[in-house]
Amino acid sequence: MDWIQEAGNTVSQITITFPDKSQQTVEKGTTPLDIARQISNSLAKRAVAAKVNGRIVSLLEPLQESAEIEILTFKEDEGREVFWHSSAHLMAQAIKRLWPEAQLGIGPPIDDGFYYDIDLDRQITPEDFPLIEQEMAKIVDENLPTERKVLSPEAAIDFFRKNHELLKVELIEDLKGSGEEISAYSQGEFTDLCRGPHVPSTGYLGKNFKLLSVAGAYWHGDEKNKMLQRIYATNYPDKKLLKQHLKRLEEAKKRDHRRLGRELDLFSINQEVGPGLILWHPKGALMRHLIEDYWKKEHLKSGYQLVSTPHVAKLHLWETSGHTNFYQENMFRPMEVEEVEYQLKPMNCPFHMTIYNSKIRSYRDLPVRFAELGTVYRYERSGVLHGLMRVRGFTQDDAHIYCHPDQLTDEIIGVLDLNARMLARFGFTEYDVYLSTRPEKFVGTEEGWEHATEALRRALEIKQMDYKIDPGEGVFYGPKIDIKIKDVLGRSWQCSTIQVDFNLPERFDLTFVDSDGERHRPITIHRALLGSIERFFGILIEHYAGNFPLWLAPVQVMVLPIADRHFEMARRVQQELLAKDFRVDVDERNEKIGFKIREAEVAKVPFMVIIGDKEVEQNKISLRLKGQGDLGQMDISELIKRLHDELAVE
User: Fold this and answer.
1) Dist. CA 560–CA 153, nearest whole Å
2) Is residue 396 flagged as an active site residue?
3) Is the peptide bond before 197 cis (omega within 30 degrees of 0)?
4) CA 501 to CA 493: how far, in whole Å?
5) Which parts are annotated binding residues for Zn(2+)?
6) pLDDT for the residue 343
7) Same-domain pairing of 251 and 129
8) Cα-only R_g, the chain
9) How high is the pLDDT of residue 444?
10) Which of 151, 205, 478, 488 sits at 20 to 30 Å (Cα–Cα) from 643?
11) In the chain, which residues have pLDDT < 50?
12) Is 349 marked active-site?
């Protein structure tokens, strides 16, 4: 199955252009690995793949024509994906050696590692992990070369059926007729269906891998299918990076929003209500109100008009928008009302288009900015539901901007400014920015795409924001900017997106009357800043580990009377603080003060006020700060000033 072709004695020369625009002439047939070796032995040792004219390729792929090339290491996102994808094959090969009857599902790279879905009658447990890791180490020592072969669908089906890999046969059946090339990668006796590319040999993967957990996962994420065993693992080029990752995982466990949501009594998911549907408890609902209230105020200050739309609409609306064609598998089944079919909304967009069309718009009206915290419903398979991060009912912080083509860059700058201001308010100041360009299949004109893409690019450059081009990854209806925020653990979360939409304005025939008296199509920007309230709330819980800033804390002050005789003053302190708009509770339980303090610490209340005989006698309070201990006695006016000062800093 060796796909590597020798360059022979050809004397043809090609020109290689590096990311810094420097160039080098090499012989036709030279591989990226050859080029890495010419640059430095260090780079050659660290290299895992290459990017040639934007396409990720093996280090051993011969270059047949002049090209732009970048040598990829583990430091680059694409390099990590190749490294982890190859590591998934390494783990699968070890499992197949230990349990030949195992059938393989899929094994993709994910954030910080990889997994593989396995169909095996025997339950794999954490006790088996050292055995699998030992076999993986043997395969690394064997330094097996990875070889690629392109197969016809018939040949691929025949090969995997003979090897009793029925899940792979199903995947190939799904690929038939798609026009997608079917390829397989082999290393030693192991062959897997895969697009690739991979590292040149198993020796490149080292031995700093760690199997992390095993969980159930429905095949294709569909609960109607068989439950497979999903084995999660990770691998790093050196032991130090692995240790850092394992430390982050331990910290992430402590911050798991599902556990903290339960412990802090913020939200719950009840199977009687339905999977993926969130019940907001009083404290969580209060925090949600604070987030939404801030969101509304910021949007009103930025010139948006708030709108509100129904949770259902006639199915015809979704036929007009195209969702029934493009998005039906993620929509709940229609319901019939008076012999007319209605649909739970999966998006807010069609409603906003309809509001825009409710009257004739002039160029003088533009830009028109509609914003809504609109709850939508999407059919996510139960196998992929995950706390607040993946749900079936959620509230999008949605907005659509309708503007004149000349206003496009300024509107995008306005969105970027609003986005930065809002994210900073919640404690996020670091993010990765991506500009996604035109895919192969698109609606609209090439001229329109170029204008929109250039406007997005120009806005990013005016704001001096570092960004990466994501070629061909725009959605079919327009180019976009994606912003991934980084939390305190350095994890990336996709939240903000700014998309130019050529599709819905056409489908809903949106127009405005320009200065020439003629009707023209407005440029439409679809944007979400927080993504969804549910998911963003989950990210906030994990970012702060439940220790929310004072302005967001559901209980800002807990008053702790030592005995019953101190209740009267405790309630008086509570009322005085409530009158100043602070959120205050009193713990009147018949418990010792030490227990009450520990409970308030566990509940992550920022300020604790202790009231005993001395405080009543002197008409003062004793103050404790979470994690800092006793700060001594003070007048209540001093406490109020301290609270105001901290809120002003936040």
Assistant:
1) 71
2) yes
3) yes
4) 23
5) 349, 400, 526
6) 94
7) yes
8) 29
9) 80
10) 488
11) 1-10
12) yes
